[in-house]
Specification:
Helix content is 42%, strand content 13%. By secondary structure, it is an alpha/beta fold. It starts with 22 loop residues before the first helix and ends in a 7-residue tail after the last strand. It has 2 domains: 139 residues, N-utilizing Substance Protein B Homolog, Chain A, CATH 1.10.940; 257 residues, Rossmann fold. The structure holds S-adenosylmethionine. S-adenosylmethionine binds next to helix 13 and strand 6.
């Protein structure tokens, strides 16, 4: 939005009322929400840009408001449909955003109702297109403060779009799909992969060690200020995201290609285990982050900017493909993903994944290992890709993942021996301490070679 469109819309002889405290925070949250919907920007990228002038506390609050609005959007929209008699005209779309962020604060955040209502009303006054709706916004948000909770309980609406719920129902059954949708209502904890001694770091950071060896923290605050960050003792990685690289069982002397490697969480795991890693990614900007991350961690890899569907190299002892995907398994962390992706995106991602997987199968030496993973809940991006590869390549077979291997629970392994984690896994009575990202990982072996039976 341009600065000029934010100017108070009407000249007035009256003295302007003092600006509502917290207005800049709500403006940034509303702008970030609009950046996701109007401009299709990722939420984190929008927030980075829009909160640059805020202090740490306000930046965190703006993030929380925008993320909570996106996380609970299905419920919030249903409430507005019930409480706003006539939808706002298209030219006053911003008014709907202000209603949504106001309602999110009233219902799901520890914000006084009057602050949530007054800031949305004042922001409406900033633009000519919404100034005429100040009264309506005030009345609807007050009503939501009085009646919203009861209505939410009575209606029990899903927060995610219908097409996602339908897909999860088909893949996991109605009950599991409902549980996944509910699990996504909570913010994810912060998981760390530590180079050595998880128990020590759990103690230092006030976290707990998970069965997979990750250290889990809650309300960690600014990550870069935590002990061990500057020294490169650990890196941020969801516990489920640490599973695929573990399936390689990397060891000193092994030649491993990490295709689709940036920003390098899995490269770091492989390098920390002593492997010679070739980290390949198409994005130069993301590889820059990978290089910075490895430097902080004191780890090394050969870094190659290339398209993984035609990268030439190897043959490798192991190839890991953490394929570009819809990322629907990360909606707890990135609630915008639920709304920024559409079925057509899944179809084009599947085509890209298939190309990368088919090409990667040629880079593995006979007897070597191929691990394929995605952070998607959609089976066509995971199970479907492996079924298609195995149908086309008789020189590959699955090496089933075993319960207990690297702390992987039996519940996270499907009938074919592939890992399928869900946000409902690793439950905890405090939902902020439980859950896993939705991940898929399969391990295959290329037949032949010195390891042939
Ligand atoms: C899921 S992310 C990888 C995360 C990374 N493995 C980690 O653990 O930090 C997918 C990556 O695939 C990269 N990518 C997308 N299409 C690609 C292609 N055709 N060739 C190589 N990399 C690609 C993206 O730039 C992105 O960095």
């Amino acid at each position: 939005m341009s600065e000029s469109s934010r100017r108070p819309h009407a000249a007035s002889n009256r003295r302007a009322a003092p600006a509502q405290p917290g207005l800049a925070v709500r403006r940034a949250a509303a702008d970030a929400f609009d950046a996701v919907f109007v401009n299709g920007r990722p939420l984190e990228e929008a927030l980075d840009r829009l909160t640059r002038d805020l202090d740490d506390r306000d930046r965190a609050l703006a993030r929380m408001i925008a993320a909570t609005t996106l996380r609970r959007l299905g419920s919030l929209r249903a409430l507005l449909a019930a409480f706003v008699e006539k939808p706002l005209p298209e030219k006053a779309r911003r008014g709907e955003t202000l209603l949504l962020i106001g309602a999110a604060q009233v219902l799901f955040m520890d914000v006084p109702d009057h602050a949530a209502v007054a800031t949305s009303v004042d922001l409406a006054g900033e633009q000519a297109s919404t100034a005429g709706f100040k009264g309506l916004i005030n009345a609807v948000l007050r009503r939501i403060a009085r009646e919203g909770r009861a209505r939410l309980e009575a209606d029990a609406v899903y927060d995610q779009p219908d097409w996602l719920i339908r897909g999860w129902t088909q893949a996991y059954g109605a009950e599991a799909a409902g549980a996944i949708a509910r699990a996504l209502a909570s913010e994810a904890p912060l998981d760390l992969t530590v180079k050595t001694d998880p128990a020590l770091w759990a103690e230092r950071l006030g976290g707990e060690v998970l069965p997979t060896g990750s250290v889990r923290l809650v309300d960690a605050g600014n990550v870069t200020a935590l002990p061990g960050f500057g020294d490169g003792a650990w890196w941020v990685q969801d516990a489920a995201a640490s599973i695929p690289a573990g399936l390689v069982h990397a060891a000193p002397g092994m030649q491993v290609a990490d295709l689709c490697a940036a920003p390098g969480g899995k490269t770091a795991q492989l390098a920390a285990a002593g492997a010679q890693v070739t980290a390949v990614d198409r994005s130069g900007a993301r590889l820059k982050r990978l290089t910075q991350n490895l430097a902080r961690l004191g780890l090394a890899a050969e870094v190659v900017e290339a398209d993984a569907s035609n990268f030439q190299g190897g043959p490798f002892d192991a190839v890991l493909i953490d394929a570009p995907c819809s990322a629907t398994g990360t909606i707890r962390r990135h609630p915008d993903v639920a709304w920024s992706k559409a079925p057509a995106d899944i179809a084009s991602l599947c085509a890209l994944q298939g190309r990368i997987l088919r090409h990667a199968a040629n880079l593995v030496r006979p007897g070597g290992v191929l691990v394929y993973s995605t952070c998607s809940l959609e089976p066509e991006e995971g199970e479907g890709q492996i079924a298609a590869l195995l149908a086309a390549r008789t020189d590959y077979e699955r090496v089933p993942v075993l319960p207990g291997e690297n702390g992987i629970a039996a519940e996270w392994i499907n009938a074919a021996g592939e890992v399928r984690t869900l946000p409902t896994h690793l439950p905890h009575e405090d939902p902020r301490r439980g859950g896993l990202d939705g991940f898929f990982a399969a391990r295959l072996r290329r037949r032949g070679g010195p390891d042939a039976a």
